[in-house]
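Fold it.
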Amino acid sequence: MSSIAIGFASIAAVLVLLALRAPIGVALGLVSLVGIWMVRGFDVSVGTLRTIPFEFAANWSLSAIPMFILMGAVAHHSGITVALFRAARLWLGRLPGGLAVATNFACAGFAAASGSSVATSAAMGRIAIPEMIRQGYDKGLATGVVTSAGTLGALIPPSILFILYGIFAEQSITRLLIAGILPGLLTAGIYAVMIVARCKANPALAPKLDEQVSTAEKWNSLAPIWPLLLLIVGIIGGLYSGLVTPTEAGAFGAFLAFIIVATQGRLTWQVIRDSVIEATSATARLLFVAVGAILLSHLMALTGVPAYLGSIVGEYALDPLFLVIGTSLIYIILGMFLDPLGILLLPLPILLPMFEILQLDLIWLGVLVVKYLEIGLLTPPVGFQVYVVKSVVGDEISLETIFRGVGWFLACEVVIMTLLIAFPQISLLLPNLMYN
């Protein structure tokens, strides 16, 4: 069997194992090691297992991941999310669908302190969904906005997925994180417009709130959320100005989160324990899958599959839009079946060389990939984010209702992705300004 054939057979074997519900890290690592054995021999396969995982895990940029996860965990366990939702509710509650709009922007705010879609939806779901249901909101709208807006945790910096993509694609992590800002704000804005338009056309979806809120109450509600604003300004400002690297920003953010919570008198041993355990377990899961993907990347390089596919693209795909559309289809299909990390890492060993051949901007590609990860979190039959919210609401609301509510937000994603593909500068404007 030729090296190219072994490469394609390995890809097929990974897909079969994933379809059989094998753990992603195990599937990627096991197939890769067997493939390397077939191409280069047993000694090379063992040597690869001995060296590559260590070389990857020793990457200094990876240390930003546990720090950002720890920062978000501290913010969540200290109760900042409650204050954030209350402030958004007081300021936006009078709009059509005001509680849903408030939840949307509260998710965007918490995403800027957590870097995790799952953490954002889980935290906001416990607070916002019961309040919207109590006010008579449609259950599909209530769960749909938490599920969909929660995915902003993957896009708005600090984004763990951008860090992993930057390491794999060998791109500036700082530029990637900054590139997610405008697409993230665009997504939140289009979501809000859709919610207001739907609720204005059909007021039964979201009964108008009767409570009267004074201007003083609105301004006072901002006082408890200053720690979150400080974290966001400190991290994004430091990255954009070049004062800190992503790793330094992660460490500074985690340290600042502990200091802020301590000054508020909320830093208990329980908060410390829960935050550290959550950060440790989440980091371990991420790195286990990432090591498997690194091994697959090494196998693909040895077999020559990326170069083979790249030569085909270079010969027949004269229009780069062809590759972008193909990439879109790949990620949308994978998003229906895999978890976000698997979706991110599995196609990259093949797609990155093809984009390089056509001289397409890999920062722009990173934004598109992360956006497709967001969409994959929402699409059936898996829809990982939907199951996160389902675990929050329990038996009170069915999966069908949540998927129905998410459908409107997926329609918004069609508009958003069209804009991001047609106008790459939406993603590249801020990163390019950093060097001008």
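DSSP finds 23 helices and no strands in the chain.
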